[in-house]
Amino acid sequence: MKAAPKKIAARRTPRAAAAPAPVARPPAARPKSLTSQAYERIEELIVTLELPPGTALSEAELSARLAIGRTPVREALQRLAREHLVAILPQRGVLVSEIDIKRQLRLLETRREVERLVVRCAARRCSEAERSRFEALAKEFEAAGRADDETRFMRADKEFNDLSLVASRNEFAAGAMGLMHGLSRRFWFLHYRQAADTPTMARLHGDIARAIAQRDEAGATKALDTLIDHNEAFTRATVSTDF
Q: Which domains does the chain show, CATH number per domain?
């Protein structure tokens, strides 16, 4: 009669000992490295034109402004140089890159090819949950266009871009797109009110999202080409010079 309780206790003891599950839990979001923090903050200053094109940058001044050491700032500037947002010039230091329409058009040439791959792969590889989200985003774009709501459109666009890269299951295409986002965002920020059209942009993005949701690779590619054609026309509309 006394042996039974002992057996039960013996079975319970290991369970209680194994309870420190918190150790096995995936760690909560890690704090960003100082280099990542420096990069994000300097990139935002450049994209939003708080640091205008042609501005000379000093590691010491940026370090003081951001309250981040000079080594992370230096590493952040090197990354920004790879993304063509700054130029590191021997004997002259670091300059915020100028906005060059010809370069922007070459960027769109490259984006067209990379994004064709992204939308095709996303249409082919997206999960059912991702398909549902693309369909919801298509409706969100339509709503933003009807309301002519720039903020709503840009939020949907950010989610659409992120989801497309995830759904494409192609880390190389995602890496290539990452190199182009900053220049694209800065150009858009500078010239948006001059030539952009939220209802049209929202409709064009919605067409791509819906084609991906329908697993229509050809339709997604065609819709992407229409969007890039529009972006090229928008880019050329910002200047009177013919290229």
A: 34-96 (1.10.10.10), 101-237 (1.20.120.530)
Gyration radius of the chain's alpha carbons: 24
Structure tokens that stand for 101 in this block = 């329409």
Cα separation, 224 vs 232, whole angstroms: 12
118-155 pLDDT, tens digit each = 999 999 999 999 999 999 999 999 999 999 988 788 78
Alpha carbons 203 and 86: distance in angstroms, whole number: 33
How far apart are the C-alpha atoms of 68 and 37, rounded to whole Å?
9
Interval 148-167: pLDDT, tens:
988 788 788 888 988 999 99
Does 60 or 237 have the greater pLDDT score?
Answer: 60
Phi-psi region of 25 (alpha: psi -120 to 50; beta: other; left: phi over 0): beta
pLDDT of residue 194: 67
